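Blackboard transcription, Thursday session:
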Amino acid sequence: METLVAFCKWLENTSWALAVSGAFELYPYLRLTHFTGLALWVGTTAVVDLRLLGWGRRREGADQLSAQLAVWNWIGLGVTFLGGFLLFLGTASGYIINPAFQIKMLALLTVIVLRVTIQRKAPVWGSVPDAPAVAKLIAGAELTLWIGMILAAVRIPNY
Amino acid sequence: MNAWESLQQSWWVVAIQGSPWTYAVLVVLHFCGVFLVVATAALVDLRLLGLAARHSTATRLAVQFSPWTWTALGLAVLTGIPLFANQAPAFAAVSYFWIKLLLMLAAAALSMIIQRQVGPWERSPSVPAAARLLALISLLLWFSVLYASVQVTNYAGV
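(Written on the board underneath:)
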């Protein structure tokens, strides 16, 4: 943890991090980038997971949705990360010791693992009308983790 | 005391202010609603523009997503009301807040039109240029809603 804090202190004092964190007028646009990415990422994740769970309409199969939306899912992740990383830069060493931020990062890693799993298995899981129990479990876990991750993000300023 | 101040001090708003976790849950649900409504509407637009899900059709996506679009919009609005009331005087004083509401209404109306018309559009030999234009406007409107939302919290200082 000490190494991590030291790294974050170095990071936030690099000339480019100082340039970003000093530009206060930039912050609304960084948040906009973060939220636009999140809408794409969460939205394209949720419609696949909800379909695996068997909730909502059945015009498209989960296999189709997953394959068709994968590109925008990863674009969403990339845009979210871009905005998030630049927001993180300014007070990196403060974020890294924040328990809500730590929970958010753990949830993030888990969500990415679950997402890759679902995208790899969707051609099988989504090809039948009713997805297997394990698919529903993983889809439900991913959605639950997302809610937890957003809750942790909202609570960051309280710690 | 004006109307926004009395709204902020009504008993149910005071109850939310006294419960940080209730407030946090409302914010989370608001975000989830916003993400889902923007994404499901935008994906239909992107498909009409030929930029997403090209092995599917915008008609199929619209049918699949429309219940989520309107459920999510309902969730965003329902949770948005107490979040607004919590800081009513500050939000009401920021013009971006009212711009956000107008943009949201315009975006929702246009998405509803697109959902209804996408079938006939796609049954014609090629998607009419006007349809693509509406899809582009819809995308820009939903993006503007996010932009205005960010500016609201920026200027309201909450």
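Lecturer's comment: DSSP finds seven helices and no strands in chain B.
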